[in-house]
Amino acid sequence: MQVKNAGIEIGLYTLGDIIPDPHTGKVISPGKRLKEILEAAKLADEAGLDVFGVGEHHRLDYAISSTPVVLSAMAQLTKNIKLTSATTVLSTVDPVRLFEDFATLDLLSNGRAEIIAGRGAFLESFPLFGFDINEYNDLFLENMDLFLQLNQQEKITWKGQFRSSLWNAEISPRPLQDKLPIWVGVGGSPESAERAGMLGVGMAVAILSGDSMRFKPLVDLYRQAGSKAGHSSDKLRVGVTGHGYFASTSQKARDEFYPYYSVYKSYVNQQLGKTGKLSREEFDQLTDPDTALFVGSPQQIVEKILRQHELFGHQRFIAQIDIGGLPFEKVAEGIEILATKIAPIVRREISK
Questions:
Q1: The pLDDT value given to residue 277
Q2: Which pLDDT score is estimated for 5?
Q3: What is the per-residue burial (b if ≥16 Cβ within 10 Å, else e) of 294-323?
Q4: CATH assignment, 9-351
Q5: Which residues does the UniProt record annotate as the domain Luciferase-like (predicted)?
Q6: pLDDT the model gives residue 223
Q7: Are strands 155-158 and 166-170 parallel, antiparallel or unpaired?
Q8: Is there a cis peptide before residue 87, judged by omega within 30 degrees of 0?
């Protein structure tokens, strides 16, 4: 099932990982990492990119645990760029507090706040905030139901399983936007894609490895479920998220990025209880034209985004370009390349 697309938003997201630089062994402090993230958002806004997202982790090797606080700081440094979580672990946060935080962000940013909600690949927030990991899915479903209702009305009466009931409760403040835009982050789960469609919220697909074609059934299922539930096509928005690194030539991009991506993959695999090191040969295969890793020259990245757009007809593409201890000057260069040499061509081609 394909949909007509009027355009595409292009932007960036970060998880704020704190990993030793593979060349120097130096580790950036959390404070400096946060300041660099704010500067990256400012650069992205000034360069004309459309959206900037920050992810949530509750570990010492990540700098961002409170996304509304970081995004509120960004709101004061930027003017136009949309500000979103990427993602909010909805299973382990109170939906009322979450709504009030992002409604406040929306007011401070003059209507630029969004939320990408997910169940989370990392599970440290469950014991940290007193939730049972065995209720992983039920917590997400209940919290999403409540959050969507909070987004609809100023006063709410509600009863659920995991938090206290609400009786004619006033939900304050209300956002500047009529409703906060809500997306659901989806990895590879058909059930999650179908659920997002049934709810009529956006779907942000994390395409981090493998052939992009294997994600097309998820997008089709999402749109079919949304249509069946009676949602109009303009509500069923698809976003693609992925890792990226851009340089003047594809060889330069691969040579420069491999050490950082390799250490990043090893770090994440270790966190998830996996072992093994990414070889250079495996890395080069991940950057092939049909695969999901956005590493290469501007022309190669343009072609890869446009190929994915033929598959998905998506409305948003956001890249994570600051991983593995990458120095900030390289991140800044990547922002400039994305904004001046990639985004304009992608927008022009898609607008045709």
A1: 86
A2: 40
A3: bbbbbebbbbbbeebbeebbbbbbbbbbbb
A4: 3.20.20.30
A5: 9-314
A6: 97
A7: antiparallel
A8: yes
Look at residue 153 and tell me whether its pLDDT is greater than 60: yes
Question: Both tokens of residue 351?
Answer: 């607008």
Tell me the C-alpha distance between 80 and 90, whole Å. 26
Determine phi and psi for 176, rounding to 5 degrees: -70, -40
Q: Which of 326, 347, 346, 322 is nearest to 38 (CA)?
A: 322
Whole-model pTM above 0.90?
A: yes
Q: Is 280 a residue whose pLDDT tops 90?
A: yes
Query: Residue 117: its pLDDT value, please?
Result: 96
Query: Measuring CA to CA, which residue among 120, 127, 182, 121 is closest to residue 150?
Result: 182
269 touches 345 (CB < 8 A): no
- Parse the chain into domains and list their residue ranges: 9-351
